[in-house]
Amino acid sequence: MVKARLQNHSLVFINIYAPTNGTERKSFLEKVGTVLNGCGDDFLFLGGDFNCTESFLDRNHAEPHPASQHCLRQLAYSHGLVDVWRRMHADNRQYTWSRMSEGRISSARLDRFYCFKHHFSVFSSCRIMPVGFTDHSLVLGEVAVKNILPKSAYWHFNSSLAQDNSFRDVLRHFWLGFRERKSDFTCLRQWWDRGKVEMQLLCQQYTLNATQDTRRSIKDLEMEIVELEAIGSSTRDRGCIETLQSKKMALASLLDSQVQGALVRSRIQDLTEMDAPSSFFFGLEKKRGQNLIIHSLLSSTGQEPVEPGQIRQRAVEFFSSLYESEYRRDDGLFHEFCGDLPRVSEEANSQLDRPLQLDELHAALLSMKGRKSPGVDGLTVEFFKAYWDIVAHDMLEVFNESLASGSLPLSCRRAVVTLLPKKGNLQEIKNWRPVSLLCVDYRILSKTLASRLREAMEQVIHRDQTYCVPDRSIVDNVHLIRDVLEVSRSLDVDTGLISLDQEKAFDRVEHQFLWKVMERFGFSPGFIAMIRVLYCDIESMLKFNGSLCAPFRVRRGVRQGCALSGMLYALSLEPLLSRVRANVDGLFLPSFYRKIVLSAYADDLIVMVRSQRDVDVLSNLTVLFNRLSAARVNWQKSEALAVGRWTNGLPVLPQDLAWRRDGLKYLGVFIGDEETEKKNWLDTLEKVDGKIQKWKWLLPRMSYRGRTLVLNNLVASVLWHRLSCMEPPSGLLAQLQTRVLAFFWDGMHWVQQGVLYLPREEGGQGLIHLASRTAAFRIQFVQRFLTGPADLMWRDVARCVFRRVSNLGLDDALFLTDFKFAKLNGLPPFYQSVVKAWALFKVEKRTSSESLYWLLREPTVHGARLDVSAEAPPRLTAALWRTRTLLLQHVVAVAGPDLTGAEAVGSLLGIRSTQAAEGVLRLWRNRLSTRERRILEDYGQGTEPDSEDPFPEIRLVAHLGNLDGPLLRPAKTFSLQAVEKKTLYNDCVRVLNRRGLSNRSTSVWADRLGGDGARPCWRVLYKPPLKKRTGDLSGGSYMGLSP
């Protein structure tokens, strides 16, 4: 290892040769991790022969020692390392070592460079080059590290002042005086901007004066104490000693205030935040690279600028060009795309353009999270929350003037654009994502308007677009695509999925086009004018390597950072989606209520095609829409997946886009064949281990509550998105749960683990139980399937899958049966887990149905309400199965609405005795209520069933068997339609851990100390963390571990 100093940068070069023995290599890599702990934010260049690989792409054969691979992956995840060559050559295969053995060539990319992720931009290239003197190839990396000093680009409000009562008085006095100067300015907007500047100066001066006063007071007190100690030791004067004590107390108070200031600067406002889900607590995780520096960029001609000023100029030119308008008006084309758009109701419009209210603005402010980067004025959310009563009415007055005049104050029109790295070569400026940091007062206004617009979005945005629309979820899109592929395979239907990559989607929204689209949607001129104010004469200043660049005009794009941006983008894209729905055939099966054409989540768009015509129509629509709106599809980054035989050949795709047969990644989830879906869980153990490793430094000083927060919020939560829509491999959750428990107990398992998963108010710690959370996700899937919106886009394909359960052919009605009879053969893994999760609960049988539609769909088998097999003649169930008489409507079709056609039923079911057939019908009639028999009579007289009737209420109760105990009682019944996620999860915890919880006392202390029988609750006793490094007296003693 070599450490070097280059100008203002520290560089660490580590050259390694990993042992060829797998066990020794594993130990060696663990030692490398220990060395990396001391690297801090130095520039790290870790290179050499690792003798193992991370990815299947790096070998032409299987990894011979998976334990080493696991250790290498964990090393990379724990320390935020990136494989430089792989990052630059995403899916390529090239090897650095080869060997011939038994007529077979084994190759692998064993030699690599690693660096910290946030320093990846210093690499301008990384190549593999063959050499003649060894069986390994040369890996050559080119690096450019610029001498850039990180600094704060602009002033930020000191959050400690929000807790300072003296500053509040000073600010109030200043603002009251400044309010009298409104007449000195040409408009309130100018006055508001000037006021924010003077508040900045006031904050800076107050902080400087307070710091100087404190330092002066401490110094004076220290000198006085020294003098008093000398006098007291010589004279032993009592008055002198009392004065000395008072001075020491005063000094202690000042020093304590300095300590509190240090706490504030470290983002902790209260000692309870050491064990609360606060920004401070989660910020304790060891992280690197908080200050991203761009060291190298390529010019538009592919050249590499040398000077920092040239690099900065390249970034500014790119983004100022990106935000230049390309809009060209075309009324004919506009009418073609926007002629049939739905319109907002008059009632909704009356709510949208009503005058601003102070309580609306305040509600918007309160909904904002604090400790976020402010806009160019430096004023934070904490500032406005603390001093809302001082500035609120003036802010409303300024906003009203802005909306009337059509322009915001200058500070609100300017955004600070910060750049975040994306995948790909970071020398390409297009691979940096711009995010706008907006002033909080602007965000308050935009959030207020966004709250209004959100309520109208469902009226104009189709169900297959789920972004920024209430009661729609990203998981809906994944369910749809997953099930479309499953149904297409199972039914051998030719289906093509084209995933369109929208180039710079949010940044290319043309303002003029957006306003015209909103008019076509029927939004009132008053509300459109409000939105236009937010985008009138706006500018951006690029924050580049710690400094702000000169502002440039922004003539298109919605700001990613504005609360309205997602909804405005969805509105701008809807004309294209509406034409695609109308002109592309998509997927339609006989059992579908409607065809399925596309799935959209913002700009993540998948279109389903069945023929060359569909592809040609889609390609033509994207070209025309580009001409109309400047939105552009990047076909080189788009993907296409084909399922089915396609005996006549696959359609030809635009611009040499190739069909895939395996799968694709959509909205963060790999979907496709079995091998593709396995990628969802690749490296999961290593990633969780890496996440946990970042907290090991603090573990001995963390309470159990703190450990629970880490595990629940930072470790397990990274799994939720995939677990909610995909089934993990067998055994993975158990392995992850073992790691969770090992971190929680830190080697000392004191309490039965089932107790830990209970809520705190029931004597547990609320520690996450992964299997229970997964089961709860599956029940929520059923809940949305049965009770979700009538036009839920994936319901039709889900019905196709549910019809396979036990080969019943039932879909929604399946959940009116008893799942203990369910057979899972032929079901995909996700649906198998759905059925198993549903079996964790008992369904309370209903007494009657108020809906004709659902009455006719009552099952007659599998323990349903109309299953009379226990009382009927033998072999009735077999006859019902044989004749597929599985629903009441099948019986009614033969026996009539009054269920009296015994002869016809006997003929259908093979019951020779008319009397026996009449007996079966009598059993069915007896199961029906008087109300239901009357409903069937109306059906016989011509009443039609309504398929839009809501699914009957289902009441569930946890299936605990014969087990009992204080920690299992009471098992409450709940309605599937109304149950909350938390209740559902807690019941899953009890069922899956019922054996460990049965007949277990809530606490040994209840019997030893007596009391009123109240249930226990975990608590934490604190010691100030800066004064004494002690832990806590936590649940261990409470659960009876202390004498």
TrEMBL record:
<feature type="domain" description="Reverse transcriptase">
    <location>
        <begin position="401"/>
        <end position="671"/>
    </location>
</feature>
<dbReference type="Pfam" id="PF00078">
    <property type="entry name" value="RVT_1"/>
</dbReference>
<dbReference type="InterPro" id="IPR000477">
    <property type="entry name" value="RT_dom"/>
</dbReference>
<dbReference type="InterPro" id="IPR036691">
    <property type="entry name" value="Endo/exonu/phosph_ase_sf"/>
</dbReference>
<dbReference type="InterPro" id="IPR043502">
    <property type="entry name" value="DNA/RNA_pol_sf"/>
</dbReference>
<protein>
    <recommendedName>
        <fullName>Reverse transcriptase domain-containing protein</fullName>
    </recommendedName>
</protein>
